[in-house]
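We store sequence with structure; for instance:
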Amino acid sequence: MRKALSLLSVVLVLSGFAAVEEKKDADLPSLDVPKAEAAPEIDGKLDDPAWATAVVINGLLPSRGGKYQEKIDKVPTTIRLLWDENYLYVAYECTDADIVATMAERDSKLYMEDVCEVFIDPMGDGRQYFEVQVSPNNVIFDINHFCTGEPQYTETKRFTPEFGKKEHWAFPEWNMEGLKTATVRTEKGWNCEIAFPAKLLMKRRGLDKIVPCELRANFMRYDWQPGKNDKRDMIHMNWAPVQHGCPHISPAAMGILNLK
């Protein structure tokens, strides 16, 4: 498996230096992300002065066709973004009076409990993208996604079943080198800070520092709320709505980050 991952990395890196012609949709969300004057400390507290200059996402949306906006509004989420030469910074502020988080091992199925999740496609072509989940206990689940062919999508912006079966590869045993995360419980819920390393985000551009550019990304949160018969219901929240259950195979649905 490691050998396969290495070979795929070489193929994508060698093919990634040229600019990618991107098909953009008018319904995709877009943000201008400012450059930080000073790097925020990744401690989960969100009181660093750097965050005062960040661009802000106020609230998330249900999955495509979802009917959970009323439940989502009861557990609001605020997301802040900044960047500098070394990292892309993301901060979540999650309102949650009933935190569900018991898993302790890296790469556990964190999406089965409360979690923040980020997808990033550095080139925006759907050929390689990264998935990082962080639990309230600061446990990480990170995946490297590769496609070995030109992506094929359905109307809901997920891979077609035929393409996904043959050309999409996911490597959960991979760990993102240089990733920084921190979480803190608060009176209202919990905070999560994530710093994505420049060497990874800029690799296919042949750079090791972040420069002003365009990235594709999506920001999500899963909140498991009390349901019927002592069971819990997963409330799936998105910045750029995706087909329910398909965020990991929907790079075409990612929004646009303009690093200014």
Observations:
- The chain has a mean pLDDT of 92.
